[in-house]
Write a structure and sequence with these properties.
This protein has 323 residues and is an alpha/beta fold. Helix content is 47%, strand content 15%. A 6-stranded mixed beta sheet has the order 1-2-10-7-8-9, sandwiched between helices.
Length: 323
């Protein structure tokens, strides 16, 4: 039985039809070297193979499709991002002929910024972190009348659920799945797909130890802001948890694993060495968490997600050098 705030199986199937207008299901592979490294069966869901190199595009497509079906497509949208949400909205806005402005913090990924501009996004640099950018985007929406697209919303979760629906159907024997938490759409989507399919896998959340708002909020039972210090896991660099996401995660997560930038860097190197796929920090976080817990995973079938591969070349070269 699904959580009332989460999509049903028929919702997810309908969302998949929307997603597949733009690209087909991404692969999931059982890489032998990763299995050796982890000491058990390990599957990787390759969301780095979407047209924007990350899972977020699924949510943007479904969000805009819902606006269109409701006759509510705006002339312009605005949102905030560290990169992948912005690319998702840029892609979907272009499909529907809607102007799209995205606010990013100063010092954001050069290559993610370039990718958003290439999709027709008007990029605005403002603030020291994602929360500053989000507040500026809200102010711009109020000032200009543009539609503010949140980073967590049921339509976004519904779209992203299609990723996990694909994985659970392809690998029904999964025992545990590790899911990184940014603002929460990915983890809530994994929960939605699990519940919709009646799958038995445990869902383990992963946060950066340099961005602990979700692990702190889960422990406290309410939203607890936390400072952000991670350099590598920009997709997880959230200072203030979303209350709606928190309510779902509190009810359905098995537990949460914090991973350090050093562990994330090692996982980025491992994924490249063993699969020759490039993972951004958040994209390597789920494998980093599985490695941290490998002693208790023996004999279990583990699911991880390379949820994004959008790391700047200079940063990735530095990670590979610092073995």
């Amino acid at each position: 039985m699904t959580h009332p705030a989460l999509p049903s199986l028929s919702d997810i199937e309908a969302a998949a039809a929307v997603v597949y207008r733009e690209f087909q299901a991404t692969p999931q592979y059982r890489w032998a070297l990763l299995c050796e490294r982890l000491g058990t069966d390990c599957w990787v869901k390759h969301e780095n193979h979407t047209p924007v190199g990350a899972f977020k595009i699924r949510g943007g497509l479904c969000y805009f499709d819902q606006l269109a079906r409701n006759g509510a497509l705006p002339r312009a949208v605005v949102s905030a991002t560290r990169g992948n949400h912005g690319q998702s909205l840029g892609w979907a806005a272009r499909v529907h002929g809607v102007a799209c402005s995205i606010v990013v913090p100063r010092g954001n990924s050069v290559e993610k910024n370039a990718a958003m501009r290439a999709l027709g996004v008007t990029l605005i640099e403002h603030g020291a972190d994602f929360q500053d950018s989000r507040e500026h985007a809200l102010a711009l929406a109020a000032e200009t009348g543009a539609h503010m697209v949140p980073s967590f919303h049921p339509a976004l979760v519904m779209g992203v659920s299609t990723c996990w629906w694909e994985l659970f159907r392809a690998v029904p024997q999964l025992d545990v799945v590790y899911v990184p938490i940014g603002l929460g759409s990915g983890a809530c989507a994994a929960i939605a797909a699990k519940l919709a399919l009646g799958h038995r896998a445990r869902i383990v959340g992963v946060v950066s130890s340099g961005a602990t708002t979700y692990i702190d909020s889960l422990a406290a039972g309410h939203v607890v802001p936390a400072p952000v210090s991670t350099r590598l896991a920009d997709g997880m660099a959230v200072r203030v948890a979303d209350a709606g996401a928190l309510a779902i995660l509190r009810q359905h997560l098995d537990h949460v694993v914090p991973v350090s930038d050093a562990e994330v860097a090692q996982a980025m190197r491992d994924l490249y060495t063993d699969t020759h796929n490039v993972a951004e920090g958040a994209g390597a976080a789920s494998f980093a968490a599985a490695l941290q817990e490998r002693a208790q995973l023996r004999g279990q079938v583990v699911g991880t997600t390379l949820c994004g591969g959008n790391v700047d070349a200079a940063q990735f070269a530095e990670v590979l050098r610092n073995r």
